[in-house]
Amino acid sequence: MLMDDMGWGDLGVLGQPSKETPNLDAMAAQGMLFPNFYTANPLCSPSRAALLTGRLPVRNGFYTTNGHARNAYTPQEIVGGISKDEMLLPQIMKKKGYVSKIVGKWHLGHRPQYLPLKNGFDEWFGAPDCHFGPYNSSIRPNIPVYNNSEMLGRYYEEFKIDRKTGESNLTRMYLLEGVDFIRRQTEAQRPFFLYWAPDATHAPVYASKPFLGKSQRGRYGDAVMELDYSVGHILLWLKRLGIENDTFVFFTSDNGAALMSGPNEGKHYKLIPTCTQSFSLRVTGSNGPFLCGKETTFEGGMREPAIAWWPGHIKAGTVNFQLASVMDLFPTSLALAGLSPPDDRALDGLDLTPVLLNHPHKQGNRPIFYYRGNELMAVRIGQYKAHYWTWSNSLEEFNKGINFCPGEEVPGVTTHDQKEHTLQPILFHLGRDPGEKFPISVSSHEYQKVLSSISPVVEQHKSTLVPGVPQLNMCDMAVMNWAPTGCEKLGKCLNVPKSQPWKCDWPH
Amino acid sequence: MLMDDMGWGDLGVLGQPSKETPNLDAMAAQGMLFPNFYTANPLCSPSRAALLTGRLPVRNGFYTTNGHARNAYTPQEIVGGISKDEMLLPQIMKKKGYVSKIVGKWHLGHRPQYLPLKNGFDEWFGAPDCHFGPYNSSIRPNIPVYNNSEMLGRYYEEFKIDRKTGESNLTRMYLLEGVDFIRRQTEAQRPFFLYWAPDATHAPVYASKPFLGKSQRGRYGDAVMELDYSVGHILLWLKRLGIENDTFVFFTSDNGAALMSGPNEGKHYKLIPTCTQSFSLRVTGSNGPFLCGKETTFEGGMREPAIAWWPGHIKAGTVNFQLASVMDLFPTSLALAGLSPPDDRALDGLDLTPVLLNHPHKQGNRPIFYYRGNELMAVRIGQYKAHYWTWSNSLEEFNKGINFCPGEEVPGVTTHDQKEHTLQPILFHLGRDPGEKFPISVSSHEYQKVLSSISPVVEQHKSTLVPGVPQLNMCDMAVMNWAPTGCEKLGKCLNVPKSQPWKCDWPH
């Protein structure tokens, strides 16, 4: 279960003051909570590619070289997508007879060859990109919603999202699609892999009518409440079907909550909406006590809520401080299915099964690497995090009101230029200082000692890293979803403009 | 159970990432959690005076008029203390035969007439002031530790606190004193009131040996772990004694966590230590997602962790969003004891028993007033908070490295001058924006509507408020604890210097 832009601090069990996630809190009480769980990138597409490949985006190609340390993703006009050379989780699971479905947001490329059913999934209900819009389809089409390999309609057309009221039934549809899949596979006694990826907490935030106005937190909270309800409902169905002891469930989010906003409430951005931008100042998730949010390599951008649930196997009510990553779900899922990960490529994920099952052997002091595009910005080992580069966003953007760290400013840390600290990394102890506010003095014994243990790990990582071919360099209006498969039947094909590719511009 | 400088976000159940408070989390799971609980002042003495009188410090005299909107407390040289005109909780409880003990920090005045046994308590083990020091006793004496009305010794002398290692057995002693009192009263079948007020999380932070180095959070976390253990141990004793269904327990803290520190780790303040200053940059509590901390009237300064526990009466695992205050504990405790609060004075606390017992009648939309010294800085009604004055600390102090909002800066909100907004208050919706980062636009319909409902409440409050005689205006070296009662027996009397009173200087 992968949420979209939901923050670490959005869960009651992780300190959201309104405590409106009873089902997720119960899931944690029945399972294992990972307070030190990380995504592989502070942005959606690379994070999702990392989950499904077990590899850092810089390896699987979900990054750009058009600019230094730029976050890139798959907007409508992206040419690239998930490479055929990558092995995706459902492709390998198939070897043991697993049937796989993705419900919700794909975001690994929207051209036909990149879609889920060409990449190991047996079923899909959802959309390739973010639910931005509505668009004037002579300029750019609304995003299609697919059922398997054919479009069913488009956002804002057949799949309504009321931007004014925030009403949409999409989460409800995703819930029903997920439950239906689980029921069908259970009845057929087939092993299954469900990748449930709703996007209601990504701007523009939405919820269905029964949840609208119910939260103390405004519309964002309404969306969280519906997602929480849906998670609870799925777990309930696993119990009803009697498969809860045979089903491993993991809940997390793709990146930190989007905090982007300026101080003037009510002013909406006039920029062309992209997956990196949030729209309303009232729509803000929480990254708890962590610094900044989405787009950044501070904790608020990359530390994620994470709960593992597997009654009868995972000890109820456990809190596990293992440093873990969304990429671990790749080898972990394979291990649970009795499969081995591919041995012909570098993997960044670790098998968490010993940790989940509380075996004495744990995955020790593994590093967490914080990338932004093609640059290793920071590394965490144990409680220590060393920043080799710092950047929030450019002063130019900041002055336009785009702020990834609203209300927060740590001098020399939340910098508005890309600042290199390779020779003298900025060091934090995340146990004492989870908010990354008090850099450890470079003249201290602690600094010297810690750096001398981190540096070799970083050198080793950098010297052996073979970057993949960057997939997020080229854009082209012609590749947008003008006429997806199935459009003929629906009479919804649009004219494809002439191909005029250009280098994508990634400002952050 | 009143903690000292412990922050809202220091509890696992409220989102501290290290989740090191299993006993408090269990207390919440067995009791009622109040995420919207407030202290009456962002500083220790006034907050404690408010708890014991049920009245705002501006009424009970725990404020100063030496400067506008200044936080004041009872340092060693304060002349004043709790007025004889105030009625304290234990004084009234006595009418129903309650035996009362305070264990730990008093902080309502240290001159003989102000001490606990002169103000309704039957027993006391602890100290009148903060555990600062050690001092050269020719300049200022170390703080005495009392057993009832006689000193037993002094901090750093008979009661060791190792400033270097952080080791001290004080929390252990406070635990044993508390348990011993509970056992004695239970055996004698006497109703009792225990005010358990340890100070281990106030700088200089300390813990006993078994807890030192055990936390992921450094020494502050060690102290929290020992306090958590002690709370669990006290609850365990209530169960062992079979009185858990007859004992109402409330846990909270006196003000937000002290975040004071500069960006240069390892640099300690050279200023004369006072109760308002923290010493080591590694010693930092957490206010969760809230803005700033101790000393300020932002949420981080005044929102407190709060748990009510009363098995068999309070429904286990409840989260109650009632806006509540430490002053409510005064009428609530009286109601539980079958007593009425005094009717000859204005009370700010409300009886929470209907809320605790989940009766349909709740204490509705009561306001929370945020004072700093003699000034009403802000008001919360429902989810809305209006700031009439903003101030973090002076630019002069800030430039010296004293920062009440490290890493945080909300333009126009965390101001370094005392900024008045009476004509156009800064308005936040704390549900959508608990971090007070996005002021609601003054031109919005919402702003106009909300202000028109808040303004009459504020006018009513201000026009009817009768301030008490300020107790915290005068200081004098002669009133320090040079020769407390009992010093003769111990041979520990010091010479009292000549009285030369002066107006206290309150910089914040």
UniProtKB/TrEMBL annotation, chains A, B:
Reactions listed under catalytic activity: Hydrolysis of the 6-sulfate groups of the N-acetyl-D-galactosamine 6-sulfate units of chondroitin sulfate and of the D-galactose 6-sulfate units of keratan sulfate
Subcellular localization: Lysosome
Keyword Disulfide bond recorded: yes
Keyword Hydrolase: yes
MF GO annotations: arylsulfatase activity; metal ion binding; N-acetylgalactosamine-6-sulfatase activity
The entry's keywords: Calcium, Disulfide bond, Glycoprotein, Hydrolase, Lysosome, Metal-binding, Signal
EC number of the protein: 3.1.6.4
GO cellular component labels: lysosome
Subunit note: Homodimer.
Protein name per its UniProtKB record: N-acetylgalactosamine-6-sulfatase
UniProt source species: Champsocephalus gunnari
